[in-house]
Structure formats: C-alpha cells, structure tokens
Amino acid sequence: MADLTLRPAAFLDRDGILNEDIGYAHRANQITWIPGAIAAVRRLNRSGYRVFVVTNQAGIARGLYGADDVENLHRWMADRLAEHSARIDDWRYSPFHPEHQPERFAAYAHWRKPAPGMLLDLMEHWPTRRVGSFMIGDRDSDVEAAKAAGIAGHLYTGGDLDAVVAFLLEQTTVEKSGTGELG
Predict the structure, then answer these.
(1) Which of 19, 57, 146, 180 is least crowded, fewest Cβ atoms below 10 Å from its Cβ?
(2) What are 48-84's pLDDT values in tens digits?
(3) Does the annotation mark 15 as catalytic?
C-alpha cells in the first residue's frame, strides 16, 4: 500500500543534477553520476523527504530515442541507486518540444519546464507538504517551474551535490523552526 503521509519533497532535475548533462542521454553507458548525487538522494530519503525526478526529454520529440529508452534508463538508474540504499519515489518526464512534433505531444506541453505540470502532477499523486519542499535544477527553467508550483527553487552550479543538499536541509530546518529564512 502506498504511503499517504503528508511529507515534504525534493524535486530533482535529471541531466546536470543526478548525472552529467551530455545532451540527450538515454542509455546506461551515457550516465556519469554527478559527484555526491547518490549520497544526496540517500540523505533526502533518510531525512524523510520524498524524492522525485522531473526532466524535460525533448529527444523523444526530436526522434533521437523513444519513451521506452527513457523509462529503461530510469529503471537502470533506480537499480544503481538501490545498490547504495537510495531511492527515487517517482519519475516524470516531458517529451514535448514546441518546435518538434508539437501536436503529437501537446498533452505534455504543460509538463515542459518552466511550466510546473510535472511537479503539480507528482504533488497530486503523492501527499506533499509544500513547506520544506524544494527543487534543485541546473537551469533557470527549473527554478521557474518550482516557483510556479509554489515551492523553493535552487540553481545548482556544480560541486558535491550531497553537500548542497545537506546545506539546503539545514536551512530548511532553520526556516521551519522560525529562527531564520531559507534562501
């Protein structure tokens, strides 16, 4: 049975946050984990956060790979994370791109970041407490999607992702206790 407890969530972009962004990654042999990414996911899990991945996948609309490739890669990534006692609770991706087959993927236009559709869909399916929830992305569109969904958005510019997450969790704890402000 699904856990229906109201909990905060960490929304993570995929390429550039969990793995190096090489452009249109869709196979396991293309994945190089960002330093600290696996530990960051494990830290979030142990801190009581749900962890979600929200990723634009325009390579589908461009005809470079298919949805099955994305889903297979996500299963592979989940298996690698599980080997380190880390877990992604759910994944969302948007195949929509306004310049490539827009009519074919029009149903996902509101999911393409900076639109908040993927985040809102996850919040609808998983009881999510917005207070304390946040998004980490490597593009302004990630931060804009977070803001549109009513949560904090943080731009990751490099370094050890686990250290970044530890800092954000510490700041979130300070914010919740009323002794400081996040951001």
Answers:
(1) 180
(2) 999 999 999 999 999 999 999 999 999 999 999 999 9
(3) yes
